[in-house]
Prior knowledge:
By secondary structure, this protein is α+β, with helices and mostly antiparallel strands. 52% of the residues lie in helices and 19% in strands. The protein contains six helices and three strands; from the N terminus they run ααββααβαα. The chain has a three-stranded mixed sheet, with helices on one face. It is elongated, with a radius of gyration of 22 Å. Belongs to the RbfA family.
Amino acid sequence: MESKRQQKHAKLLQKELGEIFQKEAKHLVGKAMVTITRVFVSPDLSVAKVYLSFLLADTQSTYELIQEHKKEIRHHLGRRIGKSVRIIPELAFFPDESAAYAQHMDQVISGLEIPPATDEEEDESDED
């Protein structure tokens, strides 16, 4: 369970990192849209787990490029929030697979063949 302080810090990081990927780190991601889906901060606020979602890009290569430039992204973050926080957290990036998983589950569910209900089953559901 995250404390209010951790949640507040995570929200600040999510907002600022989103702006960094839109403006300052454009050379890293090119035309790709990088979305910060979730941020979890350690209790001492020194480490932040950042979950990224990618649109219009090769997920793996963009993720690897971001990993290589972690220090540069942290530097941009430090310039933005350095006056309001005591510690600029170490950043740990992770790809967020929830959108891909949701799309996969949608395909699985739409591919199911559900037989029509028999007359007996319809009569039972009418009585309820």
